[in-house]
Write a structure and sequence with these properties.
Blueprint (H helix, E strand, L loop, with lengths): L2 E5 L6 H15 L7 E5 L5 H8 L4 E5 L16 H6 L4 E4 L2 H6 L4 H11 L5 E6 L3 H5 L3 H13 L9 E6 L13 H18 L6 E7 L7 H5 L6 E4 L6 H19 L1
Parallel strand pairs: 1-2, 1-8, 2-3, 3-4, 4-5, 5-6, 6-7, 7-8
Helix pairs in contact: 1-2, 1-10, 5-7, 7-8
The structure holds phosphoenolpyruvate.
Phosphoenolpyruvate (PEP) binds next to strand 8.
């Protein structure tokens, strides 16, 4: 199975989000083999987009969450509220939030602990800066992010985790990593997750994110060790997103033969 996650970021109003969600649904209609598709609109559009997605094969996700369950936290949205709003997935540790919303490793860890008390699937974003990569420390840096995010997190037999390897230098720059970079990093990510859970197994998907579009998606998706893609900018361009879904479908059909 391949997973395709669209992070709409702070784009689209409610009406536009509903129209775009309908567009995504049109592109999956009539196809039996489909990747897992998750779309993450802004908080304001979640409930209307949810209505569009009911009883479809496209799931709803949120782009962020707060660090507490309920309480006097003006402006925050808790994971329990996201659950209530129909989200099945939530992105945490996105580099934009790490950089601009003080989402430190400690905060990401607190969020992981809250998510695992719900049925939502965490989409944990990790990735190094250009300087860290140039210094040859990318693998170590990402392994440390994973270790910090998963420290003390308890899992059960049905727990699922998506880790998105998103090198910061590739996000929104048009400069994607190579599939070889992503494959190499995924090995380290799988090892770090295994170590963090003391060898206990978890349903783990490792996806790549960073300037994925309709043209380059196939080269990532065709790699057996890349379980999918997290798409930002191209996820709000319907032709690009359709092409990414089609690439996922083609790979799944080819690999099932
Ligand atoms: C992202 O924001 O998670 C992302 C991968 O963005 P983009 O696809 O625009 O690089």
């Amino acid at each position: 199975m391949k997973t395709i996650i669209g992070n709409w970021k702070m784009h689209l109003g409610i009406r536009e989000s509903v129209a775009h969600a309908r567009g995504v649904l049109r592109s999956v209609m009539g196809h039996e083999v489909l990747p897992e598709i998750v779309i993450c609109p802004s908080f304001t559009a979640l409930s209307e987009v949810r209505k569009v997605l009911v009883r479809t094969r496209v799931a709803l996700g949120a782009q962020a969450m707060g660090t507490e369950r309920f309480g006097a936290f003006t402006g925050d949205v808790s994971v329990a509220q996201l659950d209530d709003a129909g989200c099945g997935f939530v992105i945490i540790g996105h580099s934009e939030r790490r950089a601009m919303n003080a989402e430190s490793d400690t905060v990401v860890n607190a969020k992981m602990k809250l998510i695992t008390q719900t049925s939502l699937v965490p989409v944990l974003c990790v990735g190094e800066s250009k300087d860290v990569r140039s210094a040859g420390k990318a693998e170590v840096f990402v392994a440390q992010q994973i270790e910090a995010a998963l420290r003390g997190v308890t899992i059960n037999a049905s727990s699922r985790l998506i880790v998105a390897y998103e090198p910061i230098w590739a996000i929104g720059t048009g400069l994607s990593a190579t599939p070889a970079d992503a494959i190499a990093m995924n090995v380290g990510i799988r090892e770090a997750v295994k170590k963090a859970f003391g060898g206990k197994s978890i349903a783990l998907s490792v996806v790549y994110g960073g300037s994925v579009n309709g043209e380059n998606a196939y080269q990532f998706l065709r790699e057996p060790s890349i379980d999918g893609v997290l798409v930002g900018g191209a996820s709000i361009k319907i032709h690009d997103f359709e092409a990414i879904i089609a690439a996922g479908r083609d790979v799944m059909i080819a690999q099932s033969v």
